[in-house]
Write a structure and sequence with these properties.
7 strands; five-stranded parallel beta sheet; 122 residues; alpha/beta; Rossmann fold; 5 helices; two-stranded antiparallel sheet
């Protein structure tokens, strides 16, 4: 059975690249662009990893994780943001976020954060 990942990201080009990256590594990839869509899917299905954008049209990834983490036992949640701060990092830690990654994303760090051993070939 394929590993499952849910990506909450509203930037279409980044989403496309992430889908290609993870699908190429054998993941079943689902994507959503709003907190509402994320919550709907996260309540119905289970994922091994969840990639969460911080700023979204209808909220933020930390709120989405806070509302859904009970339905995703054992999942790794990774926050992706271009607007990190000490407050964001502190809140992420309090919510059990596995990693906070800055955009533009370092693929080696992203893969390591979800438990992959190495970066994709260039």
């Amino acid at each position: 059975m394929a590993r499952r990942i849910l990506i909450l990201e509203d930037e279409k080009l980044l989403t496309k690249h992430l889908v290609r990256l993870f699908a190429g590594r054998g993941y079943d990839v689902q994507t959503v662009a709003t907190v509402a869509s994320f919550l709907h899917l996260a309540r119905r299905e289970r994922f091994e990893a969840l990639l969460l954008d911080l700023h979204l049209p209808d909220g933020d990834g930390l709120d989405a994780w806070e509302q859904s983490r009970g339905q995703q036992p054992g999942a790794r949640a990774i926050l992706m943001t271009a607007h990190g701060s000490r407050d964001v990092a502190d809140r992420a830690r309090e919510l059990g976020i596995h990693a906070v990654l800055s955009k533009p994303l370092n693929l080696s760090l992203l893969l390591a954060s979800i438990g992959e051993a190495s970066a994709p070939d260039a």
